[in-house]
Amino acid sequence: MLNRTEDISLSRIIGILFHLSLAVAVCCVSAIAQENNRIRVGLASQHPEKVVDVSDRAQVKAFLPKSEYRFNELLVLDVGMLVSSDREYLYPRNLRFRIEILDDRRNRVSIRNLISFERSAGFEPQTTAMLRGSSLLLVGCDEKTLNSISEAAESDAETDERYFFSRNLFRTFPENCIDIKRPGTLEISVEAINEHALIDGGPSDQTAIFRVRSNKLKIKLIK
Question: Which residues contact 179 (CB under 8 A, 6 or more apart)?
């Protein structure tokens, strides 16, 4: 059993340890905040000294698992980009690309946005870079189907999990829909793009920028 003097000493020690741990925590949070503040991303056009254009040494491929789709079917478009270099550059962690779709009359087909996802703007150093990206599209923009997706995506997060399970709301939702209304042939291609650079970093750090088109894929739409 501790006497009064020992009790007071122990209390002081605990108090000192508490304040020290609090000070360390504050310092850590401060250091993390300063580190995050140092990481800035800007337009490559405004910081030409921080970028290198690798478009001429990049290859982009678009891939679809099949060539025939029905309306209201989900289409998973995968995109890969390969860049080989003799030195290390900073590449975006997430590959951004624009999708272009032409119908059998060579008219551009609209792509309607349904859901926007947050994607990290981080960069990482690589010499031979293999970047990947994908997009989930709904074939056709049927309003009834779109309303169903919108209601499911915007459902109250506090709702009982059984509500989501009974309505199959655990599935992955499409980001966009292809605004086409009749069967036929479509030609799909993508353009991989990076127009942003990591502004802060070492004096020799350079961000790879690019604008590269992929191969063309043809699919057939059937009812």
Answer: 109, 110, 111, 112, 140, 141
pLDDT tens per residue, range 26-54 = 333 333 333 334 568 899 999 999 999 99
Beta-carbon contacts of residue 205 (< 8 Å; ≥ 6 apart): 50, 90, 125, 198
CA distances, 66 to each of 30, 174, 215, 220 (Å): 51, 18, 15, 10
Cα distance between residue 99 and residue 181, in whole Å: 18
Model pTM score: 0.73
Average pLDDT for the chain: 80
The answer to whether the beta carbons of residues 98 and 64 sit under 8 Å apart is: no
How far is the C-alpha of 23 from the C-alpha of 40, rounded, in Å? 28
CB atoms within 10 A of CB 179: 13
Task: Measure the CA–CA gap between 131 and 192, rounded to whole angstroms.
Answer: 10
Instruction: Please report how many Cα atoms fall inside a 13 Å half-sphere around the Cα of residue 69, on the Cβ side.
Output: 25
Contact 86, 126 (CB under 8 A): no
DSSP characters for 68-125?
Answer: EEETT-EEEEEEEEEE--SS-EEEESS-EEEEEEE-TTSPBPPEEE---------EEE
Q: Is 156 helix (H, G, I), strand (E, B) or coil?
A: coil
